[in-house]
Amino acid sequence: MIKIDHRTADAYAYNIVLAAFERSFTASQITSGNDADVYVALNPDGAMSEEIRKHMAGGHKVVVFGRPDARTAEYLNCSLLPYDSIRGKTTCPPARTAYASESPEEIKYKKKSPLAPACPFSSRPLCRFDFTDEWNNLGYGRIDLTGSDWSVACAAQCADAFGTLCADGREYAYAVLKDTDSGSLLWVNRAVGWCDSAEWNMLEYFLSAYRQGDLATVPYLLDIPAGCSSAVTMRLDCDEHILSSERLFRLYKERNIPFSLAVKTSLELNDGVRKYFDDILSAGGSILSHSINHKCDWGVDFKDALTEASVSRATLENFLGRKIEYAVSPFHQNSPKAVCAVKSGGYKGFIGGIIHNDPEYLISRGGAVPFVDGIASHSQQCMLHGDCPQAEAEDGLYVYKNSYAYAKQTSTFFGYLDHPQSGYDYGWQSLDRQFDTHVNYLDFLCENGASFFSAENCLEFMYGKRLLSVYDGRFRMNGENSFSYTFSEGGVLINV
After folding, report:
1. Whole-prediction pTM value?
2. What's the structural domain count of the chain?
3. Tens digit of pLDDT for each residue in 39-65?
4. Are the CB atoms for 453 and 231 separated by under 8 Å?
5. Other CB atoms within 10 Å distance of the CB of residue 210
6. pLDDT (tens digit per residue) in 240-249
7. Of 218, 241, 268, which one is at a domain's C-terminal end?
């Protein structure tokens, strides 16, 4: 069992961290009692420091996110410095067409650390853009130095750090692993930890398999269905003209790969569109709502957002004669107000998550989200647009290939998107260039063992993760016994 402790002042970070743990370990393994094998402390104070030492002495594991109090810092052999001693830029200019932009400040991980094999990269910038100042195609969130919950929490130095913040020629502790004979402690110098990045896989490994047979372990859910070495979903967002996506659909259909469309329902829905949708659905694809008018944050207020969500869903249901339960958020914008509206509008899940906005809903694993119960999400940051393939690289798709490789290594469901060309060509410059790029990327994905799913099936899987609990060391489904997928377990199962 896992106990997450926090101060009242840290309720915002707690809700984000709680949802992240539930996505990996299920709500059934989170406890508020004193029977925890894993103790998680957010910005620990003196009372939490006592709990940390107690659990470290009891054969348990401890996770600390954020700024440690003086006693915990001493226990970690860390020296705390004034926060303003960290100098450097934490953002970067918007990306130019065909060029990425990265902050000079970065996080580096030591390759010899026991946790390093669980992270698909050895370094990452604090901020990266592949398209203007909106998208990071490599799929990790933004870290700043503003003192927010999304920032590096404190300036600290520690000789034992396996993760370091490199800024303005100096190094600061970002991640520390402390082992004793009776316990193990992982500290991440950020109040929300690694919840928005593939780095989260290091935490899953730490709790499930590190020092197994010696210390307590807890099982976790892989982010892909059982039997897959990797799982991939794609979609096109139809913001202007629906039938302009038809050429790409024929490509995917020829390869027997599910094809998904997110549809703005203010567009014309005629008999030709109906036949096209029927073809997509009969080939195993999906039709999802993309709102009525593609407004920022779904609407100006809750009532407006609810109208955009519910009316677009009803329009598609009446047009298709089938249920529509999933959506793609316009601009990937999702404030808690908007997510409440989407749920109230009858949806079970939505696709969102980019570094430009709403960090609460940029999640490294799919499933439960913070602040709103009963709805699931999947973050898809990889935008396959003509603006993005790297001009300076011999292989213009190398960023997309790395993004997929990160997801495959961490057993994370991988999603990418494009837009059909119409009035705006999204940087493709020609239909042939767009088509050929999709051909080449599909070749790569197929050669690397990808299993393909529709966007609806992906979100159905993420919704299903919310319904799982651990009983007698096994994951079991709650409530819905006829679910479509078998879920994969990671780490060491308890009581087996």
Report:
1. 0.94
2. 2
3. 999 999 999 999 999 999 999 999 999
4. yes
5. 23
6. 899 999 999 9
7. 218
